[in-house]
Amino acid sequence: MAVAVYAPASIGNLGVGFDILGAALKPIDGSLLGDVVEVDDSASGEFELTASGRFSHKLPDDPKQNILFDCYLGVKKHLAELGIQVGPVRMHLHKNLPIGSGLGSSASSIVAAVAALNQFFGSPLNDDQQLRLMGELEGQISGSIHYDNVAPCFVGGIQLMTEQDDLLCSTLPSPESWYWCSAYPGITVSTAQARAILPEHYSKADIINHGRLLANFVHALYAGNDKLAASVMIDVIAEPYRKVLLPGFEAAREELLKLGAYAVGISGSGPTLFAVCDDLNVAKQCDAYLAKHYLQNDEGFSHVCRIDEQGVANVALVELN
Ligand code: HSE
Fold it and tell me: What does the entry list as the binding residues for ATP (predicted)?
């Protein structure tokens, strides 16, 4: 028995919705921009973990320091509460996303791991139970529970964190014509550090403006008014304080807007930058600009993406070996 699950990269915040909006990404060139977790029953001890992939060298050496071990313990505990005892597992992480990148790297590992473990143990947890556990595990890393990466990564699409009554998130309409350029410069920004530099309090003017922009964004998506939606993708909560952590961000935004991008923002807590375009040629020009000017070293990369409407997905083991 073996399963392999892919979980896509995501953009948290989408500029206008700090901690409450997020979107899953799918590169248009068909490349896998997300982690894959395999689970099988070939372990000799209780838990075994191996890793491969472009960014696996950044993972802790001790498998028990890896978030996948916490995923295993979390799933095991939930199943024990349901009276289900689980056996040993061997897990393999294909770490394709850079850590501390703003692409939802930890969320991708967590979502793939929890979904793979749940399937491996016969799918006893429903989607809501899995997503709540994913949020808790993500909170262990970033210091507070926020679903803006795990929810789109798991469910796909553009997600609004509803977090009201029993509903954790709701899918918003995705503008079909939009391309999402996403450029990771190759440096690391920790989410905990990027949260620590935010103010404790905001002015009345900022709060009113934030509410106006976010409400207009959601309204515009439902009204199919893509131009309005793009024009209100303005971050008054995090970007003014975080942009100092992103070398070249201001210059890149200016150039991307000149090239025809509709909106430019920080992906999650950065340093990845995203740009929204409604024309493939513009998106390709933005991508070329970012690849040339925003990347700072060989670890960086840039992709033109669409929204990944599917979220977590099973992949064939044979594709990975
Ligand atoms: N929304 C979080 C933040 C990070 O900007 O700090 C992404 O989950």
Answer: 98-108
Query: Is 12 touching ligand 1 by the criterion CB < 6 Å?
Result: yes
pLDDT in tens, 126-181: 999 999 999 999 998 877 888 999 999 999 999 999 999 899 999 999 999 999 99
Q: Against a cut of 0.90, is the pTM above it?
A: yes
Q: Which CATH number fits domain 2-173+309-320: 3.30.230.10, 3.90.920.10, 3.40.50.720, 4.10.375.10?
A: 3.30.230.10
CA-based nearest residue to 36, from 22, 60, 55 = 55
Architecture of domain 179-306: 2-Layer Sandwich (3.30)
Q: Specify the 3-state DSSP secondary structure of 160.
A: strand
DSSP letter (8 states) at residue 245: G
- Percent of the chain having pLDDT more than 70? 98
The domain ranges of the chain are 2-173+309-320, 179-306
Å from CA of 57 to ligand 1 middle:
24
Measuring from atom 4 of ligand 1, which residue has the nearest CA?
Answer: 268
- What is the Å distance from ligand 1's center to 99 Cα? 14
The distance of Cα 268 from the centroid of its chain, to the nearest Å, equals 8
> Would the CB of 242 count as within 6 Å of ligand 1?
no
